Amino acid sequence: MIYEPLNLPPAGSTVVVGMSGGVDSTLTALLLKEKGCKVIGVTMGLWDGHFPQVVAEKAFHEACYSPGEEENFEECSKFCQAHDIEYHVIDLSKEYNEQVLEYFKSEYRSGKTPNPCIRCNRFIKFGALIEGIKKLNIDFDYFCTGHYAMIVRPKEGIWGTDKRPCMIACADDVSKDQTYFLCRLPSEILEKVRFPLAHVHKTEVFELARKANLEAANRKESQDFIDAEYFDILFSDKPSIPGDFVDVNGKVLGRHKGIEHYTIGQRRGLGVSAKNPLYVLKIDAEKNQVVLAEKTDLSSKSLIADDFVWPGNVEPNEVFEGMIKIRLRSNSIMATIERYTPGPDDTHQYIGQPWKFTFDQVQTAVTPGQSVVIYKDNVILGGGIIVK
Fold first, then answer.
1. Most buried by CB count within 10 Å: which residue of 89, 104, 222, 269?
2. How confident is the model at residue 53 (pLDDT cuts 50, 70, 90)?
3. Does the pTM of the predicted model rise above 0.70?
4. C-alpha to C-alpha distance for 230 and 227, rounded to whole angstroms
5. Partners of 321 in beta bridges
6. Contact, 113 vs 263, CB < 8 A?
7. pLDDT of 162 over the 80 cut
8. Which H or E element spans position 25?
9. Which residues have CB under 8 Å from 141's CB, separation 6+?
10. pLDDT, tens digit, for every residue of 253-294?
């Protein structure tokens, strides 16, 4: 398939830039302003004092969800005033709590390992934020962010149709590519979305920012969510329910402190003595058990996923091959992808058509709740949620 990149906003167009105070979004706004666009900066207000302030300041200091976001607002406002850019803060704390935090806790308590950043991009950053912009009666041509990704359109229809939807392609800087986080953005939203840093490497971003004397060039890069060590704060709304660590045969090995504290492949913090190192193999929410096994038992040849987002809502009509990522920091691997028909013993309630992925290479610690993203020619063909 041949793709053509969509043009970046031309001079004279009205562009809303999602700003965080970081170097990527700040430089994005500056580049568009210097190009001759009418730039409007917006920042999401997410913090609602949900956690005790003193504890939270320590836990979430460099996170996107932080009581320190007021400092980000001030930095963005200062930059926008200096460059004659209209600026707004849009309160999305209620939406973030409902769509991201509650989802995150619910998934962990059901034995899965969710990716909150993917959820946030779909429902908050490219969902509620855009709706908030419209409620301010801001008429815009494009919505831009500092993500390292690209929007493209196929030159021919996909999967035997005449549809040529907007699709997400990888950025030039592979080391900073953020397409995995964007895998659930619908094509209709992407029509107005552009990523001006698609062809810019991170080193160039810092170089350009320093030449422009941007304060953001001296900021540390923020993490996307929170450190695992602070999960206790997130889950403090309900007491954890201890249960048994068991082996693959059901033999009790010890006691866990609550299934939300564990994820597939975890080794540290188990507190179970054994001849060989043990890892989390499975989390059984119904039995409130965490199954432990040796590392060799964590290998998988395939996975089942559902709840897919396909470009243009066009689902593949045949078995196909593609490169896939099963977590952000995993290497891409080749897989054969085909429709999956649940057997009589499969009682899972699927969302739409499930698909089976058979790997060319055995993978370790495939994790339910994480996203599997399909790539071909560095373009996302679709993404779903791993079931098993």
1. 104
2. very low
3. yes
4. 6
5. 336
6. yes
7. yes
8. helix 23-35
9. 9, 13, 14, 15, 192
10. 999 999 999 999 999 989 998 889 999 999 999 999 999 999
Report the C-alpha gap between 15 and 320 in whole angstroms.
38
Model pLDDT, residue 54: 42
Residue entry with tokens 């079931």: 387
Concatenating the DSSP letter of every residue in 190-228 gives: HTTEE-TTTT--HHHHHHHHHHTT-GGGGSPPPBSS--G
Q: Identify which of 155, 158, 104, 99 has the alpha carbon closest to the alpha carbon of residue 129.
A: 99
- Contact predicate 90/149, CB 8 Å: no
- Tell me what pLDDT residue 63 has: 64
Give the rounded percent of residues in the chain with a pLDDT score beyond 70. Answer: 94
Q: What is the pLDDT of residues 86-134, one digit of tens each?
A: 999 999 999 999 999 999 999 999 999 999 999 999 999 999 999 999 9
Q: What are phi and psi of 314, to 5 degrees?
A: -95, 110
Helix then strand then coil, in percent of the chain rounded to 5, is 30, 30, 45
Residue 76: helix, strand or coil by DSSP? helix
* CA distances (Å), origin 337, targets 355, 374, 383: 7, 9, 12
Give CA separation, 111 vs 33, 47, 253, 258, 369, in Å. 47, 27, 19, 10, 9
Say how far apart CA 261 and CA 232 lie, in whole Å: 8
Mind listing the pLDDT tens digit for each residue in 213-254? Answer: 999 888 776 655 665 556 777 888 899 999 999 999 999 999
Helix (H) or strand (E) holding 108: helix 102-109
Q: What is the largest CA-CA distance in the chain?
A: 69
What's the number of CA atoms in the CB half-sphere (13 Å) around residue 292? 25
Residue for token pair 């329910």: 241
> In the prediction, which pLDDT does 62 show?
56
Q: What are 281's two structure tokens?
A: 């193999």
Local structure of 278: helix, strand or coil? coil
Q: Give every CB contact of residue 322 below 8 A, 6+ residues apart in sequence.
A: 334, 335, 337, 374, 375, 376, 381
Average pLDDT, the chain: 92
